[in-house]
Amino acid sequence: MTPATFDGLMPIVIFMGLAVALFLGGHFLSVLLAPKKPSLLKSTPYECGEQPVGSAWSMFNVRFYVVGLIFIIFDVESVLMFPVAAIFREVNDMGEGPYILLIFISFISVLVEGIAYCWRKGDLDWVKSYQISLKNK
Amino acid sequence: MNQTIVSYLAQYEFFDFFLNLFKGHESLLSFLVYLVFALIIVGMCATIGGLGTYAERKISADIQMRIGPNRVGPYGILQFLADGVKMITKEDVMPNSADKFLFYLAPVLCLTGVFATLAVLPFSTGFEMSDLNVGVFYLIAISSLVGLGVFLGGYASNSKWSMLGGMRGASQIISYEIPVTISILAITMLAGGMSFGTIVGMQKGLPTNWFIFHNPFAFVAFFVFFTGALAETNRAPFDLPEAESELVSGYHTEYTGMRFGFFALAEYIEVFVVCGVAVALFLGGSNLPFNIKFDNIPLQLFEFAIFMTKTLVLYYVVIWIRWTFPRLRVDQLMSICWKYLTPIAIFNLVGCATWLVVFNGKSIADLVFGGH
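YS: structure for the whole thing
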């Protein structure tokens, strides 16, 4: 790592360190000042006064997983588009604009195809209706 | 030591004294200088975050024709200090069944993600801690830590309300990251670079040079970005992860005292950061109009004032939106993101690219009034 890059990264490390230091400081102060009267009822999870039944770490609706999958695809594609976007103007000034535009649009059309597919499959609907699931069979 | 702040300081005589003092340990000296400036920025942003809670309550009171906090200090302006003291002196309660390590880690992740974004926020042309050449990219990447903190906060509590809130928070934050990222891509394309220095530098001069007015697509991209950013910071009308009428308090239901305070602080600073990023990307950043020339120090101060004014006006808009619109439903939230904002953002991206090629990088103002 060259010194120049390290210079640019140093503030970031400092800011992250400050965040941790702020948390530790606040936590230390509250340990010093706050009362400590633990009881069994206090340390049960809050469920509006009911006795909690079972753990919250149970199976969860799969639709959150689907959203996560779609996100990963889009995120990776947008990461790949960033370098192209950064040099787009430069290439355009060199007179190669139409070519890079064509390449860019063909790349984006793959992305659009993906979202169109998800849309058609009904994965973008939060509540899948019965008819959609029938159509897909 | 090639960074902006240090090179500005190096112009003054008193700095020679420190240079001599740390001879041979220049990196230690730059570390100390950065630490001082980081402390200033963090202190300022923490105050803005604190005053944000006060402003939120005062403005909501104004909108609902109430008086709002008015006991602590003149017009209740010291309310946030009183709140802070109260939070520190409250007992820390943790559920027995919680995952203790993750429970502690979640607010730290939220704070770290927000504070790390402060490093690239361009307060003025000189007062930017680190002008990374991948600035906006870094910003998008590091602000994802907040989403991680929100999800872990919900997961580690082992409470059903928290779990629901954390799950909603995670899915909402990652979903809305897509339209936000693609809108930023359009701006990266217009600016021809990812660093905030480049992006702000391209918008010099009159407001017609701001990227929001560059072309119609960029104009729409601003609203896509702002809506998505509101959702990413879990602000109403997108505050589903902490919807108090459905989920008690969402992902921080089990958090008490100072740990809850850190979540709130992180949220308010994040709103400030998001407004600052919107200003830097779309609204001309810290540029003075007409390219007025000043000496270095007054110039920096004027630029800083302009940046803060724009950012705080946006901050007001965010609070205004919160107290004007009702909360969305989860399915509405998802359909707005995936079926409206994302296609619009992709269309804007293609539109911006086509505009650049067709009009050879000229903005509307350039086309109408000539120039460049």
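YS: worth flagging: The longest helix of chain B spans residues 26-63.
IM: good catch. Also Chain B has a mean pLDDT of 83.
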